[in-house]
Amino acid sequence: MHQHPEVIRPTLISRILPLSLISLGYLLLSYELVGFKSDQLVLIGLVNGLYYASEQSRKFVIGFSIFIVYWIVFDYMKAFPNYAYNTVHIKSLYLLEKNLFGIPFGTVMLTPNEYWLAHRTDSLAVVTGLFYLSWVPIPLLFATYLFIKDRPQFYPLALTFVLVNLIGFVIYYVYPAAPPWYVQLYGFTFHPHTPGNTAGLARFDELLGVSVFSSIYAKSSNVFAAMPSLHSSYPVIVLYYGIKNRMGALNGFFTLIMVGIWFSAIYTSHHYLLDVLAGITCALTGITLFNLLKETRLLSTFIQKLVRLTA
User: Fold this and answer.
1) Tag placement on the chain: N or C end, fewer CB within 10 Å?
2) What is the percent of the chain where pLDDT is above 70?
3) Cβ atoms 300, 294 nearer than 8 A
């Protein structure tokens, strides 16, 4: 009678130890670089909970680890402020914005941010706040949909997202830039330890009696990372993959969100129009570069392995 070779099953320790060591390493490194924060425990709890809850949730957290790595890298930027490596552009960017896109207002020329600052309304404060809140949930919800419905299409979206962010991060360090609200508050004088600011989004919190944006911008990694606007990059990625996956009428919604975020970035004084255009360019560059890299054996094989790992 044929004897089947003995199946070696992984022990409980071998299943738990790797993630436990990664979790501990993350907490220790985070403490060393940016100090202890409750968010770190929430992230560890969420990742470990999903990993051990079920086979399907384990596959989900493995797939979305791409986004988790991005979040960690972004958080660690606090330990290496870009203004320590290059001169922060404040006045030069402001004047370039005014020269290229200035709007006549009486006897003076205003930047688009200054124009909308003089034409604020409560209704626009609410609408732009809602658009700005969607910049992370919409990409993550769409990514979740692709992960469930079409996993081979999920990984290109996720990897493109990371690639665009990495391009943006490099630009942050090559060209540190102050946002419009900084000029409104501090003029053209450089203050290295300036805290994050809600700027035009503060009115949203006031009208709705919430502290959504004040809590978000209190944790800002670096206020001198306005160029490019990655807020403006993300909806471009979503719309591209929406069109590629033939999402039909939903692409109309993605387009509305995209244009709404672009306008909101300017209306709330978080970005210049130049920042928005740079963010769009960053997204298109990342999409093009990823499509070229995807044709290489190395990346195509890597994506195939990820699909099999979470199948």
Assistant:
1) N
2) 94
3) yes
- Mean pLDDT, residues 285-300: 94
Residue 286 CA, distance from chain mean position: 14
* CB contact at 8 A, 221 and 75: yes
pLDDT tens per residue, range 166-197:
999 999 999 999 999 999 999 999 999 898 89
Paired tokens of 15: 């299943």
Cβ neighbours around 270 below 10 Å, total: 26
CB 179 within 8 A of CB 190: no
Q: Does 6 score more than 50 pLDDT?
A: no
What is d(CA 49, CA 111) in angstroms, rounded to the nearest whole number?
48
CB 294 within 8 A of CB 176: no
Residue 39 is predicted with a pLDDT of 84
**What burial class does residue 233 get, using C-beta atoms within 10 Å of its C-beta: 0-12 exposed, 13-18 middle, 19+ buried?**
buried
Q: How far is CA 232 from CA 86, 115, 242, in A?
A: 24, 20, 16
More confident residue, 11 or 158: 158
